[in-house]
Structure formats: structure tokens, C-alpha cells
Amino acid sequence: MSEALDLVAELVLRESGIRVQPAQHPALRSAIVRALPNGDAAALLALVANPVEGPRVIATLIDEVTVKETFFYRDRQQLDTIPWRTMLERAQAAGSQEIRIWCAACATGEEAYTLALLACEAFAPASPPVRILATDISSAALEASRGGRYRERSLRTVAPSLRDQYFDQDGEQLVVGDRLRSIVTFAQHNLVTGSIPPLGETAFDLIVCRNVLIYFDGETADRVIDGLRNTLRPEGTLILGSADVLCGTARRLVKLESTPIRKHSAPTTPAPLRKPLGVTAAAVVSLDPFAVETRFLQGIAELESGEALAAAESLRHVLYLDPTFGLAAFALGRAHEATGDAGAARRAYQRALRTIDMSDERHDHLLEQVDLVDVATACRARLATL
Fold it and tell me: With a cut of 70, which residues of the chain have pLDDT below it?
């Protein structure tokens, strides 16, 4: 059974780019049962080898292992940096009267519809000159996206006035209205095995691909980033997720100073933007040396400077002073990884997941563009690789 499960994990990696670690095998077994009731890994592999049944079984399995949880306006600060008017000017200069957007790995559609809503507001009262292609590997997720039916939790960050304007109430659900639907087209696409851009598509002014790379190995993530960058129009914008940057999954991401990434027609130095959890030692000199946050910033500065042992010591001190500081536990996990202590890193990430409180606003000013949901996602992604 173990050998068959390993082969299924290899199949998932080959088809989706998602690496299933041995610690995740129980979850993979559950996904197999959902995809093939009363079946097991060996039975699934036998069906996969069938030229008729194989593609359907693989698609069903991928539906079960891909992550689909999201919500409207996730990581709002990032989305607020989108330069709608400037993008239209650049599109027009390139001979197009519309802004072309690709929302890659759109899950159940919340992010694509969020972009549509932001476009409507940016160009109101006129109809937005925007077309959004939203793609995902999961056919089940796309079916939900096209349905456009969401519960209160998914729209918790949308103002009541915008809900009334762009959504229709249907019992306990809110249904996406025609104004947003008319802007978005959904299609199935695999970032790992499919062409970039999708077949039949040309360059885009904006590509949003957030918190997907964390599930890929470094080589795959690098290849996807290259494809996305090459699919941008000159001066186009690529927005990646905070969790992608926090994890540093792609080797190329580690070298980038910021997100979003802008592609220029000629080589230039990117404008400095805020880097999640980034800080220099100079930034903490004038702060209270006994404050918890000061010691946290010191640890982050040491980590960014390559002083992982010193960072671990500083961050352990932070957690001694405040055992509930989940963000510090995550940073401690990064420090332990940098020193090669996988066991300590696992314990730190597990501690972070136990202590991160999504309603805790004490350290919002430290997070900048990072959402605590993304920190938790990054913890789970790092645990899966250790």
C-alpha cells in the first residue's frame, strides 16, 4: 500500500506540481477515498492506467487535493496598489482599448470577482474597460466559480453598500450579479503542464497569482514565474502572494526585493517596495530595547542579514516574553530552517499555528502587506516540506 501511495503522490506532483510529503499521506488516502469511493491507492492507479477512465480519475483526484478556500478582498492592501487608470493608458498605447487581466489559480472565484468589483469601482460610473480571464486546475472549483454563490463568511470584508450594488441575496447566500459576471471568463488551466499563457491567449496587463507557488517545488515555481513574467505586456504587473514570499519557495523569489513585480520594456532597477517582514538593523536602533516588538524587529533584521543563530536567540526571547506572539514563532521557524535544524523548525511552525489568532490586531503595523491567514498558510506549507 505504501508503494502504491508513493506512486499516487508522484502522479499528483506530475499532474499538478503539488508535492505530497509522507506526513501528508493520511490526507492523500482520504482524498483517494473521496475520488474513488471504496477504493484505495492501488485501485486508483489501475483506473489511471485505463485510457478511457484515466483522465477522469486524475481530474477527480486533483479536485480533491487542491486547496480552494479563499474570500473576497483577501490581502486588500496588495490589491489597492493596482494602478487601474495607468494600466488603461498603457493598454491603449499598445493598441488595445481594454485592460487584460489573468487571475491564475482562481480557486472558487472570490479573487476574480474581487478584481471585477475593484475595476467597476475604479471606472464608475462607466462600464470598466476590463476583461478578466480566471483559470484553475480544478473543474469543481470552476463550477463553483461560475455559480457565483457565496456564504456570508466569504464576503465578510465587503462593505454592505457594495454587497447591495453587486450581489443578489438568495436565502443564506449572496449571488454575484451580472455587472461582475460580464467582466470575468472562467476556464480550466494547469499552470504546471499547460502552456503559459493559456492556448489562444495573448499578453496581459496584469497577472494575479497569489499563494500558489508555496505548493510547488523550487524548480517548478521558478519555471512558472518565468512563464508569467514573459506573458506580461511591457510595463505589465505581476502580483504574487504574501505566503509565496514568506516561504521563499521559488529560488527566484528569494532574490526579489518586492512584490508586485513589474515587467519593463528595457532592463531597469525595480522601485523599492515594502518587503513582507523585511527590516534592517538600523530600523530598530531608536526603539525601546526592552519592548517585545523591538526584540522581534531585531530578530527579523538578523534573519534578513543572514545571522540565523542570533535571530533564533532574539526570537526565542520574544516568545519567552510573549508566548502568544504567533508571528514571532513563524519567524523562529524560518531561523531554525536557516541553521538546518528541521526538528526545531517544525516545533516553531506548529507553535505558530497554535498561537496565531486571526482576530489579534496587536501587531498589524508590523505585517504591512501580509495577512495572518497567509502566515498560517506559510506555516502549513513549510511543515509539509520538513
Answer: 1, 23, 67-69, 242-290, 304, 359-371
pLDDT in tens, 360-385: 666 555 554 456 777 787 788 788 77
The end-to-end CA distance of the chain, in Å, is 23
Beta bridge partners of 136: 188
Cβ atoms < 10 Å from Cβ of 320: 10
Cis peptide before 323 (omega within 30 of 0): no
Nearest Cα residue to 61 out of 82, 79, 74, 47: 47
User: Which residue type does 135 have?
Assistant: T
**Length, in residues, of the chain:** 386
Beta-carbon neighbour count of residue 323 at 10 Å?
A: 12
Is cis: bond before 197, omega within 30 of 0? yes
Contact (Cβ atoms closer than 8 angstroms) between residue 18 and residue 215: yes
How big is the CA angle at 236 (ends 233 and 242), to the nearest 5 degrees? Answer: 135
List the grid coordinates of 44. Answer: 486508483
| pLDDT at residue 243, rounded to an integer | 67
Residue 303: which of 254, 336, 346, 341 has the closest Cα?
336
Task: Give CA–CA dist 265/128, Å, rounded.
Answer: 26
For 285-315, how does the pLDDT look when each residue is reduced to its tens digit (9 = 90+)?
Answer: 344 445 787 888 888 778 767 788 998 999 9
Closest by CA position to 241, among listed 219, 222, 261, 220:
261
The string of pLDDT tens digits covering residues 223-248 is 888 899 999 998 899 888 766 666 65
CA distance linking residue 370 with residue 295, whole number of Å: 20
| Rg, Å, the chain Cα set | 22
d(CA 127, CA 23): 49
Q: Are 308 and 335 in contact (CB under 8 A)?
A: yes
Strand-strand pairing, 232-240 and 261-262:
antiparallel
